[in-house]
Design brief:
- This protein is an alpha+beta fold.
- It has a single domain (5-135), classed as Mago nashi protein (2-Layer Sandwich).
- It has 2 helices and 7 strands, in the order E-E-E-E-H-E-E-E-H.
- It has helices spanning 55-62, 113-135, and strands spanning 10-17, 20-28, 32-37, 47-51, 73-76, 84-93, 96-105.
- A hairpin with a 3-residue loop joins strand 2 (20-28) and strand 3 (32-37).
- It starts with 9 loop residues before the first strand and ends with a helix.
- 19% of the residues are buried.
Length: 136
């Protein structure tokens, strides 16, 4: 079975800046969510794990860019300027794993707009419970 948005059980996004983890989030079909950081330098101190229900996963699953399943591996974007960034997007499901990574400079061309939108949505969809759990 070919992996695609409908076969997913887990979606994971991580971002490192000069080797420092600044964002990690994982959302599972059964409603388990894990998150550390928000993508900003120095934001990786608070680890939060909760069961929030499947709605977050289902909403994120709907915005997975289909082209992410057409490529795999690490893509080094040309002429990186600034801190080294590594964005990793991992999909798990149907007894498979699919990984797409983008290596780029913080002050140079970022990953494609569809990828940026997907990562922004992943953060936005997990913000409410992440920020609430950090405060408690």
């Amino acid at each position: 079975m070919r992996m695609g948005p409908s076969t997913l059980d887990t979606i994971s996004v991580s971002l490192t800046r000069s080797g420092e983890s600044v964002l990690f989030l994982q959302v599972d079909r059964d409603g388990r969510c894990k998150r550390v950081g928000d993508g900003a330098p120095g934001s990786s101190a608070d680890y939060v794990s909760s069961v929030v229900g499947p709605e977050v996963f289902l909403a994120l699953q709907k915005v997975v860019p289909p082209e992410l399943f057409e490529r795999s591996g690490c893509f080094a974007l040309p002429e990186p300027v600034g801190d080294e960034m590594l964005l990793s997007i991992r999909f798990f499901g149907a007894r498979q794993q699919h990984v797409v990574e983008f290596q780029y400079g913080a002050d140079s061309a970022p990953p494609p707009a569809t990828v940026q939108h997907f990562v922004s949505m992943a953060v936005a969809l997990t913000d409410e419970w992440y920020l609430q759990d950090m405060e408690s």
